[in-house]
Design goal:
The complex is a heterodimer of chains A (324) and B (557). Chain A contains 14 helices and 7 strands. With 324 residues, chain A is an alpha+beta fold. Chain A is globular. The longest helix of chain B has 25 residues. Chain B is globular and about 65 Å long. Classes of the chains: A alpha+beta (324), B alpha/beta (557).
Chain lengths: 324, 557
Amino acid sequence: MPEEMVTAQIDVFRHDPAGGGAPRYQRFTLELPPHTPVLTALLRIRAEQDPSLTLRYSCRSAICGSCAMQINSKSRLACQTPIGPEIAEHGRIVIEPMRNQGGVRDLVVDQTSFWEAYDRMRPHLITDPLRPMPEGRETSMTPAQVEQFRETPRCIACAACYSACPAVEADAAFPGPMALAKLYRFVVDPRDQARQDRLVRIQTEGLWLCLRCHLCTEACPKDVRPSERIRDLKEMAIAAQGGTERGSRHAIGFKQNIRERGQLNEMKLVLQTDGILGSVGQAGQGFKIWRKKPEISKKPRRIEGIEEIEQIYEALDPKPKGDR
Amino acid sequence: MRRHEVLVVGAGLAGQRAALAAVEARRDVAILSKLHPLRSHSGAAQGGINAAVGKEDSVDTHIYDTVKGSDYLGDQDAIEFFCREAGPTVVEMEHYGTIFSRAEDGSLARRPFGGQGFPRTIYAADRTGLALLQALWERLGTEHFTLYQEWDLTNIVVREGRVQGIVAFDRRTGQFEGIAAKSVVVATGPAGRIYGRTTNAHTCTGDGIAAAYDAGALLKDLEFVQFHPTALLESGILITEGARGEGGILKNVLGERFMGKYAPHVLDLASRDVVSRAIVTEVREGRGFPGDFVHLELMHLGKERIETRLQEICDFCRNFAGVDPVVDPIPIFPAQHYMMGGVGTNIRGETNIAGLYAAGEAACVSIHGANRLGGNSLLETLVFGKQAGLAAAAYAASASAPELHDSDIADAEAPVRRMMSRTDGEDPQAIRTAMQQTMDRYVGIYRTESDLLEGLRQIRAIQKRFERVRVVDRSNVYNLNLTDALETGHMLELAEVIVVGAFARTESRGAHSRVDFPSRDDAHWMRHTLARKTPEGPNLSYAPVGYTRWEPKERVY
């Protein structure tokens, strides 16, 4: 049975810095079946309407990672996004280059910063010459150990997560979700001998700059779930080194506050995060908040139902015996 | 002028492995690729990599299966070397960090693959190529080399009987540049996009094979084109043989498991050429589904097994075909998948030109002969990538400095400037589509003399049209319209070699199936086709098959 066609209005960002001229959106109209991937639509435009439309693409099966772009403001793989639902939801399809990477031409972006962040993770097995790999045979690794990689081996480095990440936009020191998911992949690898060193280093190399917004996990076309792996890295970093950084001290203090009273003690949390001297610099900000919300200076009460919270903590993270 | 000792063109598994070998041999190495290395098409390989490491298995059985699978056109001496290297190669990749799937006892998990006596295909779920590509790139990243990323190769320069370097252009600047090199390794992969219906990436356009051919290299066995039996109907996206290895079965419109008629012993796991012909025959005899396809059924395997062992396949089916393999049959049809032929080499990757090497799918050693077994191509990229890298490094260590002239660059650039200055002429994509339609129609799974003659006539007419190709995009930045034109030119040369070789070979062997010559003819045709470029078209000659101890037998599965 022939499928119904839809009329696709596709507005594509165009800019060739070499040719001069301001960036613009160019509208193309095509009749296509609704399941047509956006990439196929763009290639039809190249073949039939404008061969100068410039984009990266290769495999058309979501494995090479070339064709990530903004599709109706979301970072997606063009090959894996059908046009039908986009048109149903937005009435048209707006195609723009990925964010957080400089433009080269049309939809092609400069990925230098993305790859540099990846390189900073030392993305290779670090082995100890004193503990060599088994001679002439594979390292033993159980299916349960392979399970520890979670979905990180599926990463195709498409940079959709990097494009979607507000922390990347805010701070160049943040390596981005893909790089951290790659780091996780090496931290959990039983063959790697640099686990401790990797965890210690990343505490000062951007781990705590993650804003926990989970936009990377939403953007990832391969379900790698970078934000969950970043959370794992934070836990592992604290376990490996304790609260040596603002971020980790904040996390530890937050957890402790809730356990004790069921709500935050903001004054205490600032002290826990920044220490006494560090907190002095925040006194002005604290004073402003206090004027609007004087109750923050009071030590918060234990909330009603705190017993339930204690039970949750006890189930997830039992206190050592002596503490009970 | 840029200058290196060893220049590798192509950054998939074969190219990276060649580069690693040359770096380890302490040469100054550069890699040039039109893609970021991690975007290479090696990453799309799904099923696995063969190595006879199981207790019940043996290297001899792997050799025998490969010889038989090749329909006795594979060189037996090369196949012996290849299969012996398999175990160490897989272990090396594991040590580099590849995350393979594992058995409960902690060893490498293995799955059965078509045309093979034992489950010897080692895998990483259904993304083995990606797992290997990641690990090799990670390993190579610890070494020092130069990367020319998103550069397009236009010419390999050969003078005084040896390689002098290449000419290429940087997409980011549009500049044509010469890169002098003592040795050049061609590892640019296949030219699957010669066909319209193909599992290959858009970028598989045979650039290196064509440049080598232009430079005087002999192309071997190009008429042997593998059609993978199970590609998704519309997009041609590959559904791995691993799906049948896990227990998937093929059914026609009558609900019959038809492979019983064609391969009574191994059924759906027969060799790829056998299964592809069976599907085409079912459809031609009216037992296909409306729209000309058959079904691959996985449903009986159960949700958990499908979703863990065939995770990517699940996504492909759901995203690209709108079917859920847990509950629906998958509509499939054969599509061009692999080129057994390529730049002719020996087991060291050496071609007929001093300083020119080739490896991987761009090369033809020949391991695969007339038909490749699943799981042997990933292994080939690594085994012969390394050999080519070693040989290229050894040659570079003793060769004198290469000489590239400004005129070499000007000569390469002149036809491109003509394409870009024409005010009339045809768009390269229209020409490419015409070529693909001709190859699909006349040079597919079943071939006849009249079809091949018509195919050749059309390809030559399309080559004429290409002389008037016009690049309308005049930008110097990332000009894909120009890339389209160059790629189309490369493919048109290779298409002609395929058709001429297929026309001349009056027998059926492996993937080359002549309806008018249905049987294998060892007396006349147990030999390799070699094509040399001349102004009149490909000039064919023939070379004997390397033979050690396996007598040709009828190939039955």
